[in-house]
Amino acid sequence: MDLPAGRFHYRRWARDIGAPTAILVHGNGGTWATWSRVAPALNAADMDVFALDLRGNGSSVKPPVGSYGLHDAAADLHDFIDALSIRAPLLIGHCWGAAIALALATGALSDRVPPSLSGLVLEELPPDMASTRSQPVVQDFLRLMRSPREYAEKWVDLVCRDWHVVDRRSLLENVYSADPDVYLSTIDDGAAAGPLLPLLGRLAEPALVLRGSPGRGGMLSDVDWQLALKHLPHGSSANDVAGCGHEIHRGDHATFMRLVTGFLHSCDGCQENTTGSAL
């Protein structure tokens, strides 16, 4: 579809008119394929589901390096919602996608009124984009992008051997389609937004914040996690998913879906913060 920034690609898993809607927002270097198992599972739970290829990724428009700020990506998502007249969607974002969802919901980097949303699921929200460059998971992804396919396939089969085969394939699809220059520009341009965790305190909608284990590649340190909990508003929840790394939705799909569906069932009646651990 055509948006102000150019032509964007998306996938849809449709339900009947009036069904609640979810928009899935992938992380840096990803595509809609990130959600290859999540999208059908949400659709089976009677949700109308959209998964967008963000600018510079997959089959969507690829602006020049230097055009990947958080305000640019959030504007794209806002335009996508407006173009399809999507009413009060749930935003589910992973890493960079979580940052985009948070920026859009709070209107922090825009003079536009944020769209009406039903809630947010923020998986592995980075504390800021600048700090992600040195993260092992980022360096691993860069190395895979620059390596022969045979190496990437063996690496994924070894490191992600406990993942479902669909999730391993979707990760490889992300690796093969990603552009290292766009990937690094997203980090550098996104860093201009500054600290992201304080934006949690500006949310008007309920949110579910999920953290993977820092020892397994999770983005949020213990200090960052305490800061996130401090800013998380009433009506929201947070779960520290022990034993899983940065890719919770792929590394522990069952727990991810259990937490998301539980959030969907409870958020309308949420009155206070809850925090917990998923084992």
TrEMBL record:
It comes from Nonomuraea mangrovi. This is Alpha/beta fold hydrolase. Keywords: Hydrolase. GO terms for molecular function: hydrolase activity. Residues 23-154 form the AB hydrolase-1 domain. Pfam families: Abhydrolase_1. It comes from the Bacteria.
